[in-house]
Amino acid sequence: MRRPLVAGNWKMNGSLESVRDLLDGIKRGIDEVRVAEVAVCPTYVFLPETEKLLAGSVIGWGGQDLSTEGAGAFTGEVAASMLNDFGCQYVIVGHSERRTYHVESDELVAKKYAVARAAGLKPILCIGETLEEREAGITEQVVARQLDAVIDLEGVDALADGVIAYEPVWAIGTGKTATPEQAQDVHAFIRGRVAQKSAEVAEGLRILYGGSMKPDNAGELIGKPDIDGGLIGGASLKAEDFLGICTAAN
Ligand code: 13P
């Protein structure tokens, strides 16, 4: 039995004040909902405050990206050890916004996965196709390529230390959710591909769905056999909505 994970990707949002309010709201609501695992990923500068407010709670936290380098002259970058310093347990790698706006290749993302893993962080590996790719009928090819980059570099067992998030790019922030059937098809494909290398890793692998997940569609999505939770953008910025998704994940 895989424990569902509901993770909030706050992206570049919030102020110190709004982050405090949001963390407070989630903390207050979470006891009742008792979902297996819940985490939030604020932008770097809010990690110290997040650690301060969430330490000792059932809610985990993580970064939205990391550098492949350990330290040195890499202006603007953040190392895995720095995420460790602020108690992060997770880190998102390969989000489509990084792949698109920062031209992150499959190989770079795989390296980030490896660096996160080596630092004891749980990487949340984002994969997913664009609308053009879906319309061209190459969704499976695209997610296979993105997944294989990590397997080729680190071996299939490395997936046991992380989480996959299937995020169709066309569903992110657009209000257009993949139907539960569309998502399930791709999730099953991903699990099947991993199973070709290791049935055991495939069975334990958590595959989250991300893309316009809201309290009112989360239950149906997470109810599918291969959907093990969600990576939530917009709806993770309101405590009530985020908690609603956590409840649905139960
Ligand atoms: P939305 O939930 O805003 O569509 O964002 C999804 C996402 O990109 C999570 O990483």
Fold and architecture overview:
The protein is an alpha/beta fold and 250 residues long. It has one domain: TIM Barrel, CATH 3.20.20. Helices cover 46% and strands 14% of the residues. It has 11 helices and 8 strands. It has an 8-stranded parallel β-sheet with strand order 7-6-5-4-3-2-1-8. Helix 1 (16-33) runs parallel beside helix 2 (47-54), helix 7 (139-154) runs parallel beside helix 8 and helix 10 (215-222) runs parallel beside helix 11 (239-249). It is globular and about 45 Å long. The mean pLDDT is 96. 1,3-dihydroxyacetonephosphate binds at residues 9, 95, 167, 172-173, 210-213, 231-235.
Short structural summary:
Helix content is 46%, strand content 14%.
Keywords:
TIM Barrel; 250 residues; alpha/beta; 8 strands; eight-stranded parallel sheet; binds 1,3-dihydroxyacetonephosphate; 11 helices
Record the SSE blueprint.
Layout (H helix, E strand, L loop, with lengths): L4 E5 L6 H18 L3 E5 L5 H8 L4 E5 L16 H6 L4 E4 L2 H6 L4 H13 L3 E6 L3 H5 L3 H16 L8 E4 L13 H18 L1 H6 L2 E3 L5 H8 L6 E4 L6 H11 L1
Parallel strand pairs: 1-2, 1-8, 2-3, 3-4, 4-5, 5-6, 6-7
Bound molecules: 1,3-dihydroxyacetonephosphate.
Contiguous helical run count? 11
What is the averaged pLDDT score? 96
Identify the CATH class.
Alpha Beta
Which sequence of SSEs, written as H and E, runs from N to C?
EHEHEHEHHEHHEHHEHEH
Shape field: globular
CATH level 3 topology: TIM Barrel
- Low-confidence stretches are none
CATH architecture: Alpha-Beta Barrel
- Strand content is 5-15%
The CATH superfamily is known as: Aldolase class I
What count of structural domains?
1
**How can the largest sheet be summarized?**
8 strands, parallel
Which small compounds were modeled alongside the protein?
1,3-dihydroxyacetonephosphate
Read across the widest sheet, the strand sequence of neighbours is 7-6-5-4-3-2-1-8
CA-atom Rg in angstroms? 17 Å
Helix content: 40-55%
Class of secondary structure makeup: alpha/beta
Distance between the termini: 13 Å
Count of strand segments: 8
